[in-house]
Amino acid sequence: MPNTQSRRIAxxxxxxxxxxxxxxxxxxxxxxxxxxxxxxxxxxxxxxEEYGPRAALCQYAATAILALLLVPEPxxxxxxALALGPYPVLRARLERLRPAALRWAAKFAFFNAAVALVxxxxxxxxxxxxxxxxFAAAGVPYLAALAVxxxxxxxxxxxxxxxxxxxxxxxxxxxxxxxxx
Length: 181
Known about the structure:
Low-confidence stretches: none
Order of helices and strands: HHHHHHHHH
Structural class: mainly alpha
Mean pLDDT: 86
Shape: globular
Number of strands: 0
Strand content: under 5%
Helix content: over 70%
Distance between the termini: 22 Å
């Protein structure tokens, strides 16, 4: 089946809508603040593998804008929009870096800068009630442990994106092979 423009738009539109639904469900769950953006970023992989980075970035932009407008939890929608949403496309670019230590340093630098930007925007611009008090009451050891756990979650997210991308490419290759006579 040919990959027409209408098919590309339909796939990206449906996946963007599904991403917003995942983020909305995540806002209803207590643990969804970090898990829902990870699940929503996985939905970029079909567009990225089928149609390339431009289609995936358009899908990401649509999902991020709708999430910022519709999701009631600003932390969750900002976490998707700034940290994990663009990551599958960025990861494809970062995989070209050599050596591996530089690649991982760039990945963690992006993630930590994005998380710092999310919380800076939350604290300075949006100021949800109780967030500054929660951070002040938590103390430095708690925040350091949270940063370590978030980096571990990001590492697992990176491995999951890699595995899902490989599985998608293998499935697509098998599908395209002509049947043996």
